[in-house]
Design goal:
This protein is an alpha/beta fold. The chain is built from eleven helices and 15 strands. The strands form four sheets. Strands 7-6-3-8-13-10-14-12-11 form a nine-stranded mixed sheet. It has a two-stranded antiparallel ribbon with strand order 1-2. A hairpin with a 2-residue loop joins strand 11 and strand 12. The chain starts with a strand and ends with a helix. The structure holds uridine 5'-triphosphate.
Length: 309
């Protein structure tokens, strides 16, 4: 029996008592090297993780979510267009000087408040977009032999506390590998990694299997993985094989599935709303939802929505 602070008491059987599998998570990988073909032409020269939702790039939301969850080191796996992202998380002395000269020093302080210390950030290049599993594998030397988080910034989660902070609370209890999950329509399961459920206890689901992009007729459930993972380093050993799966890509879910016999694996039904910002509709909806969250914008946004409805 475990007690989750935000989600009540749950009966969970630990499948492995190895204390190493519950080590504190201090590092996070942010893969940003995807081609973003669903969002061309916008993604031709700009990675979608740099798209703003209202006024903040997706990648900054992800970094802030990680920081709130206790992450201390941020590892970006970048592709061909990394310079804007690197500029975003670096200091801009020219901009700061102009703002100060224009009596806007409060904006300088605001920017400084979220730019991480250089010692906390590193960049790894994925030379070719061979799949999410390959992108994560590219960061293996930066992670070493400790558990880590993976955040896909194009999955934006509106929640308080943030999705990863919620997952950390569950991870502290169940250990091993933990992924955030949500229910999707059965006809859409072929877009996601889907859990094969062993037992379900409220918001925490113990899985005995994991299938990437199954056909709805053979899908083991409609519980799909979203872009938040807490993983043990053992997954790198599986990714070493570089085996290609669905879509002819190296799939992270396939490597996690290979560790199922040795490492407990749980899905967590997070509290919050996820937006698929890798798709046009998901991205537009996120902009509306986040603008409506801002008291200074809400009334104007509702007026605009009424105008077009
Ligand atoms: P997606 O499945 O959304 O793929 O990647 P994509 O290539 O970015 O976009 P589409 O489907 O062509 O429109 C999920 C996450 O994994 C990263 C992406 O940047 C995104 O954060 N990714 C994917 C990589 O870093 N490298 C890859 O080779 C593939």
């Amino acid at each position: 029996m475990i007690l989750l602070k935000h989600y009540g008491t749950k009966n969970i059987t630990f499948s492995n008592g190895n204390p190493d599998m519950g080590k504190r998570v201090k590092k996070a990988i942010f893969p940003v090297a995807g081609l973003g073909t669903r969002f061309l032409p916008a993604t031709k020269a700009l990675s979608k993780e740099m798209f703003p939702v209202v006024d903040k790039p997706l990648i900054q939301y992800a970094l802030e979510e990680a920081k709130e969850a206790g992450i201390e080191e941020y590892i970006f796996v970048t592709g061909r267009s990394k310079s804007t992202l690197q500029d975003h998380f670096g200091r801009s002395y020219e901009l700061e000087k102009i703002l100060i000269d224009n009596n806007k020093s409060e904006l300088v302080e605001e920017i400084k408040s979220w730019v991480p210390d250089p010692s906390q950030i590193s960049y790894v290049r994925q030379q070719k977009a061979l799949g999410l599993g390959h992108a994560v594998w590219c960061a293996r030397n930066n992670i070493g032999d400790e558990p880590f988080a993976v955040l896909l910034a194009d999955d934006l989660v509106l929640s308080n506390p943030g999705c990863l902070a919620q997952m950390m609370e569950v991870y502290a209890e169940v250990k091993g590998n933990v992924v955030a999950i949500e229910e999707v329509l059965m006809e859409k399961v072929n877009r996601y990694g889907v859990l094969d459920i062993e037992s379900e206890d409220g918001v925490v689901v113990k899985a005995k299997g994991l299938v990437e992009k199954p056909n709805p007729e053979v899908a083991p459930s409609n519980l799909s993985i979203i872009g938040r993972y807490i993983l043990q380093p053992d997954v790198f050993r599986k990714l070493d094989n570089q085996e290609k799966g669905a879509g002819n890509e190296v799939q992270l879910t396939d490597a996690i599935a290979e560790t199922l016999n040795d490492i407990p694996f749980h899905g967590f039904k997070f509290a919050g709303k996820r937006f698929d910002c890798g798709s046009r509709l998901g991205y537009l909806e996120a902009n509306l939802a986040y603008a409506l969250e801002r008291p200074s914008m809400k009334d104007d946004i509702l007026t605009i929505i009424n105008k077009y409805s």
